[in-house]
Amino acid sequence: MVGMSVLRVAAGFAARLNPFKQGFSNGRLLTRTTPKTESAAVRYGSHGKQMFVFKPSDYYDRRFLHLLRYYILLTGIPVAAIITYINVFIGEAELAEIPENYVPEHWEYYKHPITRWIARNLYDPPEKNYEKMMALIEIESEKAEMRRTQMDVRKLMREKGDGPWYHYETMDKSLIDYSPKSTPDN
Amino acid sequence: MPTGDENVGNKNLFFRFYDGLYALIDGPVTLFREKFVEPAQSGNKLYYYHRRYRRVPSIDECEVGDPICYYEANEQFRRDKHVEDNILSILRQRRLECEHYHRYDADKYCEKVKQDYLTAETNWFTKYGDIGPKLDVRAAYMKQKHRLIWERRHGPVGSGMKSSVTVEH
Fold first, then answer.
1. At A13, is the pLDDT very low, low, confident or very high (cuts 50, 70, 90)?
2. Cα separation, B23 vs B14, whole angstroms
3. What SS3 class is residue B162?
4. Which of A47, A106, A152, B51 could form a cystine bridge with A125, CB 3.0-4.6 A?
5. Which residues of B touch A (CB under 8 A)?
6. Given A88, A110, A141, which is nearest B48 (Cβ)?
């Protein structure tokens, strides 16, 4: 109480010293609260006072997302457009009975036009794969049979010795020179 | 999906409301398809067919040392197994749908469907079951052979083994 009166006197003294400097509105220091800026009717033409906001750099994040979208859509949009065109204007095939005396081509067994195109231009027909597999099996089985026969023949010729294999040529007996051993005292 | 039959007259209010909601989304889509898409595609229509495979000699008609006959019999066995797997799957779906539809009355309405499925499952297991990872035509053939010999010695499968068996010729 006493302090407040002292301060009031001091405020009045300060006002007298410097009458043009209006601190808070002269003479009523401490009784009047700070006027809030929102409650005062101030209207700006701009967005108010410009603030310099401190935040970490989002340059790298935004650059990454921009590049991500760019590279995905670079091929994504043409691919999506082409596939939409094919699905709307060419359309999927319809199931039908095989007509009489007609052998369908191998791509005519698939439904979607892109699958048909791939089967027609990029892939071998499944019949060709089947025949290739059977050809490989045939070759390998013939090789195995030949190897088995060769093994049997080799075993028998070694045993019996009467065949053309394991037949080693020896020298002619008439070429042997018995002269070193012909007399007992040599 | 729209509620039930279109030809049922006097649908109640809830069904009509639901049909209206369904048509809100389905209507424009169907309109687009019937007005634009079908005429564009009807010029050169594509058709596709189902493959028909010829029957080749099965494993019991193959010579012992003939790997090509075995390969063809094996491929035919795998195709037939695919077909039988899907037949079993369809019968199983029928039974499940019947039981789900009738719920607590399933015992009354679903007996035949259930018996169909159980016989098909038993037969499938007799032919393909318990063979293991190397499921090829030779393994299935040997399984059949062993089962027939066992049945010859001991009676039908499921009636127990006889204690002493004299080897028959």
1. low
2. 14
3. coil
4. A106
5. 36-37, 40-41, 45-52, 65, 67-68, 71-72, 75
6. A110
Helix, strand or coil, per DSSP, at residue B58: coil
Residue B78, number of CB atoms within 10 A of its CB: 13
Q: Which of A1-5, A51-55, A77-81, A110-114 has the lowest mean pLDDT?
A: A1-5
Which is higher by pLDDT, A186 or B145? B145
Torsion of CA A78, A81, A85, A86, to 10 degrees: 60
Per the prediction, chain B carries an average pLDDT of: 89
Contacts of A95 in chain B (CB under 8 A): 47-50
Q: Which residues contact B147 (CB under 8 A, 6 or more apart)?
A: B126, B157
- pLDDT confidence band for B41 (50 / 70 / 90): confident
CA angle B65, B71, B74 (to 5 degrees): 115
Provide the shortest C-alpha distance from residue B83 to chain A (in Å): 18
DSSP state of A174: G
- Closest CB to A94 among B40, B45, B51: B45
| pTM given for the model | 0.70
Instruction: Kindly determine whether residue B41 and residue A111, on different chains, have CB atoms separated by under 8 Å.
Output: no
Structure letter (DSSP) for residue A94: E
Question: Does the complex come out with an ipTM higher than 0.90?
Answer: no
Closest alpha carbon within chain B to A127: B53
For residue A26, count other CB atoms closer than 10 A to its CB: 16
Can you give the pLDDT at residue A35? 56
